[in-house]
What does this fold into?
Amino acid sequence: MKHAILIAAGLALALPAFLHAEPAPWFQWRSKATGTLVCTQTPLGPGWEKSSGPYRDARCEKRMPVK
It folds into this structure.
């Protein structure tokens, strides 16, 4: 019984964090070797540099307002 109360309390405290969660932003990355542009949510490695962003979509067309 005590475990159920602790689990319920933990879920109640964690719920607001889940309600305010947003998807990860997209960024446009440029290859240092070829100049190719790619739109991803995560860095591609040392051979790439962030070109622009953040964006809301996977095509890097809709800019996201910066807070």
Remarks:
- The radius of gyration is 19 Å.
- Helices lie at 2-19.
- The mean pLDDT is 86.
